[in-house]
Amino acid sequence: MSRSLNKNALNTIENLTRAQRWVNRPARPCTRHHSSRTTTTDVFSHPASAKYLTSATDAARLPSCGGLPEIVVTGRANVGKSTLMNAVMGRVNLCLTSKKAGRTQMLNFFRIGPEPGKLVLVDAPGYGDRGRQEWGALFDQYLQTRTELRRVFVCVNGTHGLNDHDRAMLQQLDAQCQASGGTRWTLQAIITKADALARAKNGRGLVAQIQHAVFEAAPTCLPAIVTAAAREPHFGIDEVRNSVAEACALR
Ligand SMILES: Nc1nc2c(ncn2[C@@H]2O[C@H](COP(=O)(O)OP(=O)(O)OP(=O)(O)O)[C@@H](O)[C@H]2O)c(=O)[nH]1
Ligand SMILES: [Mg+2]
Fold this sequence. Notes:
By secondary structure, the protein is α/β, with parallel strands linked by helices.
């Protein structure tokens, strides 16, 4: 019984992975990085060396992290940003996670790779009903001033889809990205908690709907990566790693 249940779950996940390839097709420059056959990049091959560096609460005093290229992960409160970052870093609880929304309240900086490091991942506080205005101000200032920033990942909950806060955030990021012609940083969506979609009959259709809604709100946004990060089997994590490495020109 449990064997066949597992087999069914894995089949559905495989279907989702296929859906991901299909959904990713429109963005030609990035498509090849999202194939489930891509291998984990060397950048993330030393999980033990991933290190918490510092946190920022004050928009006027953002830390210096040695000029390493940076990637920030944003999204609604409780969407799974910190859990995703742990999976990407290959660590269980380097980023603090919680069932309760609003766990991450600062910009938290993590170095990837042995000293002096390859890049910095930044975990951001959540936005939306359960976020707070001051966190929004901190994030806006970070986006506007951080010259090391290479890519902004916007996490969207696979089981809920986009709400008005997500659309507003995507539109705002898209406008900023367009204003710089994509020369400062680029934007990519990540669908989180897709293990729930893998159990749904129409998981593939839901992924396509979310992808469509993201594209409508933010035409410059690179195709969504479909992920499950809370428990095994994870999926989409190598695709996120490859996207990070590509954005930081490390592959
Ligand atoms: N089923 C499932 N649950 C997940 C996944 N990712 C995260 N979660 C759960 O979602 C909850 C919130 O996860 P966090 O990673 O703390 O979310 P966050 O976006 O960092 O939240 P804030 O810091 O509060 O904004 C936790 O209970 C996680 O276990 C996933 O891929 N699948
Ligand atoms: Mg968090």
